[in-house]
Design a protein that fits this description.
With about 300 residues, the chain is α+β, with helices and mostly antiparallel strands. The chain has 2 domains: about 10-190, CBS-domain, CATH 3.10.580; about 205-285, 2-Layer Sandwich (Uridine Diphospho-n-acetylenolpyruvylglucosamine Reductase, domain 3), CATH 3.30.465. Helix content is about 30%, strand content about 20%. It is built from 10 helices and 12 strands. Strands 8-9-12-11-10 form a 5-stranded antiparallel beta sheet, with helices on one face. It has a 4-stranded mixed beta sheet with strand order 1-7-6-5. A hairpin with a 5-residue loop joins strand 6 (about 165-170) and strand 7 (about 175-180). It is globular. Keywords: CBS domain, Repeat. Belongs to the UPF0053 family. Hemolysin C subfamily. It holds the Pfam family CorC_HlyC.
Length: about 300
Amino acid sequence: MTDADGSSSAAPSAQQTEQSSRSLWGLLTGRKVKPRDGRQHDESTETSHGSNGASRPGLSNLRRMQISDVAIPKGEIVAIPVDTDLADLVEAFRDSGFTRLPVFESTLDMPLGMVHLKDVALQYGFDGATDDFDLKKLVRPLIYAPPSMPIGILLQKMQSQRIHMALVIDEYGGTDGVVTIEDLIEQVIGEIEDEHDVDEDQPWAEESPGVYVALARAPLDEFEAEVGIDLSIPDSDDGADTLGGVVFLLTGRVPARGEIVKHPAGVEIEVVDADPRRIKRLRLQVPKVPVVASEPAD
């Protein structure tokens, strides 16, 4: 799967696959797609953006959006080396909350495939007491795709090959990102919440005393009333209405998953879930005694 120089040999085949995107789009939608010089006008593409310019879920995204629009960047990929033992593998699954993890040889640019949590559970359990564990035996194949491939084509490949994770491969054969089938489906039907996600009707939950797991869109004023701390940003002309807005104002960008942001009031905010476009979930550790921001000296 990898070349001797350390680059993935999957890049050329991924680029060739993209050439069939127009015909496969017809298979996905059941519509005839004319060549580019006489392409049919699709009114749905004009309404696929909200008033703020962000993409709205819809079928038109399957053709309009590329893998690079939805992929998790390389720096945020949770992956494991092939020589990982069972205890460390179980810990990686537990810490990340994922059911699939990419497996690599020596660097992420030398991927071998992925390991599924179900395979580990069925063959070894979770007690880490086995001496004959070999991660390489559990490695399943991945899809390799270029960042410019339409997401509808990748979704069709995932369905036909029954592989629900793809690595994004750049022009040099290196790993550029990762995308799962859930990332693609969310572009059509909206965000998918599972049993471990915070209930939409409950914007936050107290995980332990003083520690809250919250949706990024949780109303700021209601959370402030809950914890009794003012989370407004000192000396800022911009205001935030949500917890995610507070984090964005503090950092000036969309922070990466796992990043920790410290608020002047003493609250420590961990980004539990985020993608390149938005913050999704946060973990907030609230101090017992609120920190009072010092006034600037005259």
